[in-house]
Request: fold
Amino acid sequence: MRIGICSDHAGLEYKTKTISYLLGKGFEVVNFGTDSPESCDYPDFAHPLAEAVEKGEVDCGIAYCGTGNGMAITLNHHRGIRAGLAWNTAVAGLVKEHNNANVLVLPARFISYPMANACIRKWLGTEFAGGRHKRRIDKIPV
Ligand code: RB5
Reply:
């Protein structure tokens, strides 16, 4: 599986650790930045990740910013993206099981790195339930 990943400056440390973790587990990782601790604008990194997911260049994505909201709002402007914010493992599982989120968004300033890692493992390890949830996500695009 090929996973795209991005962050702004607030998520850089967790992104760097996450890339090492994923590579160690045998995933392919495509890093869309930022790779600098300088203050930056999250849409500059969210849009390239979203486009890569939409084009099928990566299978799914992970995005970090301070609250997660800037990344989630930006990513969800893309028609082919269902970006879901998670802050614990229950939510991380449900955002795949119920919403089939193809990008997991994590709030780096509000959860520990071990929790971020646990959310990623839960999200990757959970299957979309389909059924009534498929009917619901099919009603999302406008
Ligand atoms: C950066 O200060 C912060 O605004 C950003 O990381 C994110 O939380 C925005 O939604």
In short: The chain is about 45% helix and 15% strand. Helices lie at 12-24, 43-55, 69-75, 89-97, 113-124, 132-138. Residues 8, 10, 42, 65-67, 69-70 surround D-ribose (CB under 6 Å). The beta strands are 2-7, 28-31, 60-65, 83-85, 103-107.
